[in-house]
Design goal:
homodimer; 321 residues; alpha+beta; Phosphorylase Kinase, domain 1; Aminoglycoside 3'-phosphotransferase, Chain: A, domain 2; 2 domains; two-stranded antiparallel sheet; 9 helices; 9 strands; 42% helix
Chain lengths: 321, 321
Amino acid sequence: MAVYTRIRTQELEKFVESYDIGSLLSCKGIAEGVENSNYLLSTTGGRFILTLYEKRVNPDDLPFFLGLMQHLAASGVPCPVPLHDREGLALRQLAGRPAAMVSFLDGMSVHRPRNAHCAGLGRAMAHLHVAGGDFTPARPNSLSVTGWRKLYQKTAPHLENIANGLEAEIGEELAFLEQNWPSDLPGGIIHADLFPDNVFFIGETLSGVIDFYFACFDILAYDIAICLNAWCFEAGNAFNITKARAILRGYQNERALNDAEIDALPLLARGAALRFFLTRAYDRVNTPEDALVRPKNPQEYLDKLRFHRSVKSAAGYGIDF
Amino acid sequence: MAVYTRIRTQELEKFVESYDIGSLLSCKGIAEGVENSNYLLSTTGGRFILTLYEKRVNPDDLPFFLGLMQHLAASGVPCPVPLHDREGLALRQLAGRPAAMVSFLDGMSVHRPRNAHCAGLGRAMAHLHVAGGDFTPARPNSLSVTGWRKLYQKTAPHLENIANGLEAEIGEELAFLEQNWPSDLPGGIIHADLFPDNVFFIGETLSGVIDFYFACFDILAYDIAICLNAWCFEAGNAFNITKARAILRGYQNERALNDAEIDALPLLARGAALRFFLTRAYDRVNTPEDALVRPKNPQEYLDKLRFHRSVKSAAGYGIDF
């Protein structure tokens, strides 16, 4: 839930008038996203999402994110389309914050994805990867392998509070991944945060992908690895190979993986699990007790990391040749 | 901001199917209301507000509130209309909570009401009072004069922390109001919480009155007294007599006040100020430090109470005969 900044109605009316979307009819702060304040606006011209970017987003990155959404939407990826005001600007200021308006997407995120949802996710992710191929602006992934050691150093002193021997276990995992991380896999624009919260469905049909604020250039198959972690574990952290197969089949319907990508999946999945383990452990240590947003439990990603270490080949994710 | 309960998408789809409103397209938790969880739904049939009633609402009162909204809407008061499911029920259960769906109203609350907003408020309030005249179910006002002593007793030990001598000052005020509270003024259904947050406008036109969860039977003019407190003080708590006049004129366009009601306004306004002072002081003492909703400052209503004590007659509120 996230509405950190309140907007005066008169200020908002004036803001809306600078777009060609008719006059303002309603505005509701909505519980969507974690990092920013989001509002659902309706005007005589339709429905829109207004986002005020709060402290955790680097304003210098916003043109990249907005340009990417524009590019992907133009290529048919079902993602929010940034609106341009009468002067052609997508990035504005409102209530003292960087602000942008995007189109509204129908659909809802699913709490417990079924196989059909996973297949749709796979297809949309591949579509996004292909469509991002000719998007030229650059944004490296600060949360990929080269960023993990810094996170590890900041959290290592606290890891023993989570479990005995964890500082050593994570240190060894990190060293292994640093040494073995692939450098020859196809790269491109990845979403990098394709959790079920960020994907909308109407029934079983995927209707939208949102929240591009981690998107960056990285190994394409690393996006799949993030999804294997985020979509395929059941309650109690049992891995559901049927869902993994659905994601991979859906993906390969749109973009075929090469042998190197397939072989690398278990390693990439370990990396993705380590990345979310480290950021969750870091947030847990660094979130004040009275924060509005409670940090998520890192233990879940430790279990997932250990599972992926036990996977010998991509067959463990149900991939069929 | 208030989304206390999360709903599973499949459970929600099933819930929506029990109404004749088409199929579910989207659902956003919205930051509206303080006591309950609210969601803005869109379906192929339109937009609706879904409310899950949380702990602070007595479920036994819900048929009264829903019946009242139904009654008022049928009389043309711009308020949410409860939807009935295919079995004719307005009050349902969802995610373990009492739940109801109502029509969506366009419009926004105004942070700094102008005179035209106040006039619209006055007219709508009188409309509500007239339309409520033939609503027969009963609900006494537990937060009127007979309820204040209990609140005072619970907060009195803490009042000295707000200001020196405050326990005595509030005690004397309470005794005075108990002795002089009128018993012969016209009564009926009042909203009892007509703060700017609960009134929507499109431009300067009133488009909706929401949040009937304090509505009850009480002195009609007491509703006006609440609005004089909630709408007519500027920053720094200066009383804006022009806004008060606008409310009273707007009101009397729809329903004429009798002499006794007019004479009683200063006393009723003191009572309304005391009521919100006491509930805010009580909430401040009884809200845990880590609560999602921060209690409002009671000092504001102490200043208002002292102002109304200085008002000698309704002329002090700009009323013209």
